[in-house]
Amino acid sequence: MPPRREFGQPDIIDYERIRYPTLVIAGAEDKLRLPGYHEVLGRIPDSRIVVLAEAGHLLNIEKAGEFCSIATGVPVDLLDMGLVKGLRLDGGTAHVELLVTSPLCTQIGLIVDRVREVLAEVDGVGSVEVSVDARAEWWPGMMAASARQRLRAVRPL
């Protein structure tokens, strides 16, 4: 969070006391916060920022599908993650069933919206129905081998 003084309020966070690796994800078009992030990161040891192109202040909505792989620096899509349980085209309707890595996934609503947007652009698709099986168990072995190798290079699976 950039200093509150930008909003006429005192800065109440002692950033120098943060002792954990910190990742800040910001939108390149975020005119409200982006300048302040760089100042704050200079005060937090072992911190870094990832700036997403073509995203503004609401980047969690604008770039929802990218959040899950940003922390590793290894982009992995839904198919490679093994999160697409089913996909079929019935007439002009695309039916997609997704899994989540955790029933506590906070991004699934945004991911569902993005799946709808992408599939709606495909020729022959008139409508898109997406369902989520939050009770199904997902494990890293469901990932594509190539995705597991890319992730294994930066963290253990």
Q: Strand portion, in percent?
A: 15-25%
CATH 2nd-level architecture of the largest domain: 2-Layer Sandwich
Q: Could you tell me the mean pLDDT?
A: 80
Share of helix among residues? 25-40%
Query: Which runs of at least 5 residues are low in confidence (pLDDT < 50)?
Result: none
Cα radius of gyration in angstroms: 19 Å
CATH class of the largest domain: Alpha Beta
Biggest sheet strand order reads 3-4-5
Count of runs of 4 or more consecutive helical residues: 6
Query: How would you describe the oligomerization state of the chains in this entry?
Result: single chain
* Classification by helices and strands: alpha/beta
Tell me the number of structural domains.
2
Strands, helices and their partners?
Elements: E1 22-27, H1 34-41, E2 47-52, H2 59-62, H3 67-70, H4 78-81, E3 84-90, E4 93-99, H5 108-120, E5 127-133, H6 145-152
Parallel strand pairs: 1-2, 4-5
Antiparallel strand pairs: 3-4
